[in-house]
UniProtKB/TrEMBL annotation:
Keywords: FAD, Flavoprotein, Oxidoreductase, Pyridine nucleotide biosynthesis. It is found in: Cytoplasm. Its EC number is 1.4.3.16. The keyword Oxidoreductase applies. The lineage of its organism: Bacteria, Pseudomonadati, Pseudomonadota, Gammaproteobacteria, Lysobacterales. Residues 13-383 form the FAD-dependent oxidoreductase 2 FAD-binding domain. It catalyses: L-aspartate + O2 = iminosuccinate + H2O2. Pathway: Cofactor biosynthesis; NAD(+) biosynthesis; iminoaspartate from L-aspartate (oxidase route): step 1/1. Its cofactor is FAD. GO terms for molecular function: L-aspartate oxidase activity. It is an enzyme of class 1 (oxidoreductase). This is L-aspartate oxidase. Catalyzes the oxidation of L-aspartate to iminoaspartate.
């Protein structure tokens, strides 16, 4: 445990920022190197990974193959994917599942093999899951147990990465904060595994730790980013009470798969007018239809009373618990929903080995852009990405003989670094991005959001706030450059390019 930074070693071979599936996969695979894992909260419980419901995609069924998995991944990504990365991802998937199994992850089974679920846009049943709809929690339980007992892994929990240290253009360490204490950790390799950008949007399914701080650190260090405009939204999050912004409980797609329908205030199934597949149309189509209803002032509900009814607690325990906590009984009443930011396909640009454009700086998982998702992510490919590319990166660094740079352990951050982003700035960014750089974009809205962010930046010297504004601006610039609609990027002032 990291209760006191003063008593801890400061020299490592590798520093991993983040303890989600990507960070822990990399840390474990980097043995026997001395690895520091710096994470915001409690190990493995503070990121999006633990919230994952559906599971992990892998071509394991007799009628499936990595080639089919690749085909579905490319179709979902509108063929903007990096084909070499996709091939690597799908071919490594079965072995990656076997590795988790060997670590003790208790996947749901059917007969002699795994129980394989089928999700939208997958042409085969290939979703390996655990504990029904609590897959992420079980996977992270297994990874956390392995990390806690690994002698080469040194844990810095409740620690925040504040700044990357560079010497002569080379990454040499990281400044971290634990409560009011600040320290410097040294290593010739720093891996960002900090997750997504949920904190940029009014509604998100991501936990608060997905605040884009890893992207901001990378940008400040001069790293290139890619595909920033591609943000995925989930159509059905549990609508908040009042003007709450931030994380909302996810109502899994499997509910619509089971027959739950979306209704507006007049009880009309509006999805029938948008797609022949109605509620089972692609995520972004359903999300925009829900958004359009809400924009018209309609309330939207997901009605699972007939399709699921009394079986709710047993079939969807996580969703049932979220509804109950909000005083809703989904067995008997429809659930109010809003769309919510869910996943960022773009991120810090990395090569096939996870290296960014800055020497010694690596990125993996949702914060990185390997190009594997193209313009839109295929469901259940993101846990897989963290797992496959995390392990590969750890193995690569295990073979590296870069020496740990030694140096003083200074602590020269000013007090402003230690404060959270001011609430009014947090809210202003979320609202601007939600309205103008979210589900539906156009030139005028993007220009307005950009100018507003410039003005907002002038009102603060808060480093984390400025970092977050910088990431938001990168999304806007990329969205302005891509003047047509494709994948998760929708311009209402342009024509849709058909997925090839
Ligand atoms: C509700 C929900 C359901 C999902 N369901 C699925 C699913 O079924 N299948 C699937 O494949 N994907 C799913 N996803 C997406 C998937 O969970 C994420 O894309 C994936 O878990 C990201 O993993 P990661 O390791 O990159 O980041 P995370 O798991 O988010 O971990 C990020 C880590 O970085 C730490 N961190 C961040 N900033 C700092 C900082 N400045 N200093 C120190 N530490 C920091 C955090 O504390 C955390 O430990 C779901 C996502 C959500 C939100």
């Amino acid at each position: 445990m990291s209760s006191n930074l003063r008593d801890r070693g400061r020299e490592f071979d590798v520093i991993v920022v983040g303890s989600g599936i990507a960070g822990l996969s990399a840390a474990l695979a980097a043995a026997p190197r001395r690895v520091a894992v710096v994470t915001r909260g409690e190990l493995a419980r503070d990121g999006a990974s633990t919230w994952a419901q559906g599971g992990i995609a892998a071509a394991l069924a007799a009628d499936d193959s990595p080639a089919l998995h690749a085909r579905d991944t490319m179709a979902a990504g509108a063929h903007l994917n990096n084909t070499a990365s996709v091939r690597r991802l799908v071919e490594a998937a079965p072995a990656a599942i076997a590795w988790l199994d060997a670590l003790g992850v208790d996947f749901d089974r059917a007969g002699t093999g795994y129980a394989l679920g089928r999700e939208a846009a997958h042409s085969r049943a290939r979703i390996v899951h655990a504990c029904g709809d609590a897959s992420g929690a079980e996977v992270m339980r297994g990874l956390a147990a392995a990390a806690r007992s690994a002698a080469h892994v040194h844990l810095f929990e409740y620690c925040q990465a504040m700044a990357l240290l560079q010497r002569d253009g080379q990454t040499v360490g990281l400044r971290v904060q634990h409560r009011t204490e600040v320290a410097t950790l040294h290593a010739p390799a720093v891996i960002l595994a900090t997750g997504g950008v949920g904190a940029l949007y009014r509604y998100t399914t991501n936990p608060a730790t997905a605040d884009a701080s890893g992207l901001a650190l990378a940008l400040a260090a001069g790293a290139a980013v890619a595909d920033m405009e591609f943000v995925q939204f989930h159509p059905t999050a549990l609508a908040p009470v009042g003007d709450h912004s931030g994380q909302l409980p996810l109502l899994t797609e499997a509910l619509r798969g089971a027959g739950a329908v979306l209704l507006n205030r007049s009880g009309r199934r509006f999805m029938l007018a948008h797609s022949p597949d109605a509620e089972l149309a692609p995520r972004d189509v359903v999300s925009r239809a829900v958004w359009a209803e809400l924009e018209r002032g309609e309330r939207v509900v997901l009605d699972a009373t007939r399709a699921v009814g009394a079986a709710f607690p047993e079939k969807f325990p996580t969703v049932f618990a979220s509804c109950q906590a909000r005083g809703i009984d989904p067995r008997r009443e429809p659930i109010p929903v809003v769309p919510a930011q869910h996943y960022h396909m773009g991120g810090v640009r990395v090569d096939a080995d996870g290296a960014t454009t800055v020497p010694g700086l690596y990125a993996v998982g949702e914060v990185a852009c390997t190009g594997v998702h193209g313009a839109n992510r295929l469901a259940s490919n993101s846990l897989l990405e963290g797992l496959v590319f995390g392990r590969a990166l750890g193995q690569r660094l295990a073979l590296s003989d870069a020496a740990a740079p030694s140096g003083e352990s200074s602590a020269d951050l000013d007090a402003a670094h230690l404060e959270p982003v001011p609430a009014q700035i947090d809210t202003a960014i979320r609202d601007l991005m939600w309205r103008h750089a979210g589900l539906v974009r156009d030139a005028a809205g993007l220009a307005l959001a950009s100018a507003s962010l410039v003005r907002l930046a002038d009102t603060t010297r808060h480093p984390a706030a400025l970092g977050r504004i910088r990431v938001a601006q990168e999304i806007i610039v990329a969205a302005q450059r891509r003047t047509y609609s494709i994948g998760g990027h929708f311009r209402r002032d342009a024509v849709q390019v058909a997925a090839g």
